[in-house]
Amino acid sequence: MHRFYVITAFILLTNTIAGATTPPLVSSTKPATEPVTVTLEPLWSRGGEDDEEVLFGSPRDVVADAHGNVLVLDRQLNHIVAFDPDGELLGILGREGEGPGEFQRAGGLVVLPDGSVAGASSIGGRFERLAMDGTPLGSLQLGDDGPGEGIFVLYRAGCAGGTLMAATASSSFDQSTGKMSRVQNLDVYGTDGSPRGHLCEATVELDFTGTQAIEEISLLRHFLVVSAVGPDGLVYVPHSRDEYVIDVYDAEGNLLRQVERAGYEAPKRSDRDKRRMASLVNTWSAGAGFEIPFERCACEMTIQAIYPDERGHVFVRHAASNRDLPDGVFLRLDEFDAQGRWLREVLVHGVGDSSLDTMVWLGGGRVAVQRGGALIALERWSDTPVYWDDEAEVVPELVVCRWEE
User: Fold this and answer.
1) Residues 6+ apart with CB under 8 A from 2
2) What are the structural domains, with CATH classification, of the chain?
3) Environment class of residue 385 by beta-carbon count within 10 Å: exposed (0-12), middle (13-18) or buried (19+)?
4) Residues of 80-105 as b/e, b for ≥16 C-beta within 10 angstroms?
5) Strand intervals (E) in 294-357
6) pLDDT level of residue 9 (50, 70, 90 thresholds)
7) What's the sign of the alpha-carbon dihedral 190, 193, 196, 200?
8) 18-27: burial string, b at 16+ Cβ within 10 Å, e else
9) Number of neighbours of residue 63 by Cβ within 10 angstroms
10) What's the rounded Cα separation, in Å, for the pair 368 and 381?
11) How many CB atoms lie within 10 A of CB 234?
């Protein structure tokens, strides 16, 4: 029997008024084939309670270079830890500071085409380039003129296929009113930092006087939280917080197509998820010196991670990926083919606690499981460590695994 993709819409419309072409929408209501099982076979692990050589503070970003080396950006310790393909420690790159090869509140990590490692401070929008032996190679500034006025924060970055992607926010605070204006952006650059295209933008006004509630949907924009660059240089971005739609852009910022899983309904937040969000808000309130009213969304963000692979296939972790799983299953992912059609569900077996750990795509048939990654991801939104109510203490650990189907 032959199975066919169920496509509810594949539409190419021409906007005759504006003279623009609407990109095709590839919409699937169900997967084309039966679910498949993938097993994560541990290759090596570093950090954790038993590693006397490596101690992670708050490992933020994990990437692999063309030689299979694995690099970890630690925001708390403001340096990059480099491992060879077998997990042996190669060295510590960079350190805390404001000079060449130094970081303040490390916030982004990419590998550039020349093999250099570029780590960024959260504040300032400047990457510090380093050789694998730790030698500073100069800085890389995003854009022609660098950040403008106000506080410029880098939230996430990615680089592959000649495309450098950066999610940023520029904020200005009016002390007389207690209000902050924040412009959030997602842009693509050449690997030399030259601007190529503007993908997303949102402007929000935040009231820190305690008289008006801050809305989660405004504070944590979807494109700041989830976006990814594929090996071919394409950029994948959730269309909105609550829709299961992915916008696919080329390296110049042109929207090529939209990929949809039609009819998806995100589950309501669990009690655990509510407690975690409350802990985050309590941390903000403690820093402000008063209780910050916060309007929480009823559901988690629909698309929570996007993993493009070398074939152009895309794996998606969604709000229900860690819900109601069979025994032994770590995550349930959706796999889309290179044309954007929903191919199948992928049941990921092996190491990992679905409520606490996260997965990072390394490429080359490898992934990394980040122990405590769910809490580390939330801490991205806090300037100070978060005290998590009712959470067991987790010593950060990285487990590199082979992805075996």
Assistant:
1) none
2) 7-404 (2.120.10.30)
3) exposed
4) bbbbebeeeeeeebbeeeeeebbbeb
5) 294-295, 303-308, 314-318, 329-336, 342-350
6) very low
7) positive
8) eeeeebbbbb
9) 23
10) 22
11) 21
pLDDT at 144: 63
User: Are 51 and 43 in contact, with CB atoms under 8 Å apart?
Assistant: no
Nearest CA among 252, 247, 246 for reference residue 233:
252
DSSP state of 224: H
Q: What Cα–Cα distance (Å) separates residue 46 from each residue in 92, 108, 110, 133, 245?
A: 14, 21, 20, 20, 36
- Take residue 336 and report the two structure tokens written for it: 């889309």
Q: How far apart are CA 47 and CA 379, in angstroms?
A: 19
* Cβ neighbour number for residue 176 with a 10 Å cutoff: 6
Torsion of CA 223, 376, 403, 131, to 10 degrees: 80
Length of the chain: 405
Q: For the chain, give me the number of helices (H) and strands (E)?
A: 4, 32
DSSP reduced 3-state for 15:
strand
- pLDDT by residue (tens digit) across 51-76? 999 999 989 899 999 999 999 999 88
pLDDT tens sequence across 169-226: 888 888 888 788 889 999 999 999 999 999 999 998 887 777 888 888 877 789 988 9
Closest CA relative to residue 343, chosen from 367, 323, 314, 363: 314
